[in-house]
Write a structure and sequence with these properties.
alpha/beta, Rossmann fold, Arc Repressor Mutant, subunit A, four-stranded antiparallel β-sheet, 21% strand, elongated, binds calcium ion
Length: 232
């Protein structure tokens, strides 16, 4: 049997954009399910097991935000990666989209290349990079088998939470994660934990990295979250 293709659901009411996107995703080797309305999209989600949703914000029937909420409210799709497409470029809308549970956000008119890169990155995060042996970014290196972190060969000692935080951030360098996303991924049961805790551990991680590298390697997006980056 042929290898199973990764299924992606695209919900986009603009037929020409839907076709263009579906065409490009097919070329990349994805199996594409197409929906022109929110209702159609939700129906397809019930019938098929998809691995990613590319979701237009402005739809004629149900808004992208509402679809996102419904996907997150359903146990079987609670962790399904969602990339929102939107004409809105306002920071506030971006935060709203991410807060409601979208994993990523692309502003129209978007470049297909960028969207494809984000799809790949988000699929990779979800598969936890199929556990590679070593991960690296800007001279930071995590040896997963040995559970050690180094910078230019110099050992960095990290607490267990800081290690998990760094590991998670390294699955997608430069991608911004909300504090809520970090809580969900790094602290498995976190009902008692506040987002403030994320700030504390990010602070420790940043300090440990800085001690060895002399660089700030974590970017803060005020009031929102963090990304692994070379801030300088
Ligand atoms: Ca639209």
């Amino acid at each position: 049997m042929a290898e199973q293709l990764t299924k992606i659901l695209v919900i986009e009411d603009e037929p020409s954009q839907l076709e263009l996107l579906a065409y490009n995703l097919n070329v990349e080797g994805y199996h594409v399910l197409k929906a022109e309305t929110g209702e159609e999209g939700l129906l397809l989600l019930k019938e098929h097991q998809v691995e990613m949703v590319v979701l237009d914000w402005m739809l004629p029937d149900i808004s992208g935000i509402e679809i996102c909420r419904q996907i997150r409210a359903n146990k079987s799709t609670i962790n399904l990666p969602i990339i929102m497409l939107t004409a809105r470029g306002e920071e506030e809308d971006k935060i709203k989209g991410l807060n409601i549970g979208a994993n990523d956000y692309v502003v129209k008119p978007y470049s297909i290349k960028e969207l494809l890169a984000r799809i790949r990155a988000n699929l990779r995060i979800n598969k936890n990079l199929s556990t590679p042996e070593v991960m690296s970014f800007e001279s930071i290196r995590i040896d997963i088998a040995r559970h050690t972190v180094s910078y230019n060969g110099l050992n960095i000692s990290l607490g267990p939470i800081e290690y998990k935080l760094l590991y998670f951030l390294m699955t997608a360098p430069r991608q911004v994660f909300s504090r809520k996303q970090l809580l969900d991924r790094v602290w498995e049961s976190h009902t008692e934990i506040e987002t403030r805790t994320v700030d504390v551990h990010i602070g420790r991680l940043r300090k440990s990295l800085k001690k060895v590298s002399n660089k700030n390697l974590i970017r803060t997006i005020r009031g929102f979250g963090y990304s692994l980056d070379n801030v300088g």
